[in-house]
Amino acid sequence: MHLLIRWFLAPLVRLIYRPTVRGADRIPRTGPVILAANHRAAVDTAVIPIVTPRPVSFLGKAEYFTGTGPKGRLVARFLTALGYVPVDRGNAKAGLAALDAGRGVLEAGGAFGIYPEGTRSRDGRLHRGHTGVAALALGTGALVVPVGLIGTEKVQPIGTRIPRIAPITVVFGEPLDFSRYEGLESSAVIRRAVTDEIMDAIAELSGQEYVDRYHRRPGEGAAA
């Protein structure tokens, strides 16, 4: 399944969409690295691995991996081959479970993709990042490569299921090294400073207007 995706599906998607990719050579080929991106569409999680020169793991809902029958097993194998890591998001400790899953990928020397905003942007702007990305970077010593996704919201607008053909641009920034903060992972001030630096880099790459407040998920009250 992994070979099918890597050698057939990914080249086919690149041929169809012909994404413009800049800065892919900035991604370290080995060692732990976090790819921190803006989030414009559900298709983002498929776009990044397709244009990245090394496998990238993302979080996936645990229930996607527990389906029964031939279809359920096929979906689980497909997601595993794509690099998804199952995590239970339906309990009070979902945030900690997500961080633990990401930490596991990084401690094994892998690449881990994350959207610091926590949800897709519904107004086109880049919103304040949650500090989980900083906790992962500080706790594992991983470099952070900021990623700017442009145009994916036109490929799969919110509310649509079938992707459309539209221009896509993916821009990778220079790796950010936060080793200067070694041992300060427990400091909320440091985690916020690191997260803000990452979000500033993403904003520069994506060209989005930055809003210094958390994005509100559908059905939620006012954001903090």
UniProtKB/TrEMBL annotation:
One of its GO terms (molecular function) is acyltransferase activity. SMART domains: PlsC. Pfam families: Acyltransferase. Residues 33-152 form the Phospholipid/glycerol acyltransferase domain. The keyword Transferase applies. Keywords: Acyltransferase, Transferase. The keyword Cell division does not apply. PANTHER family: 1-ACYL-SN-GLYCEROL-3-PHOSPHATE ACYLTRANSFERASE. This is 1-acyl-sn-glycerol-3-phosphate acyltransferase. It comes from Pseudonocardia acidicola.
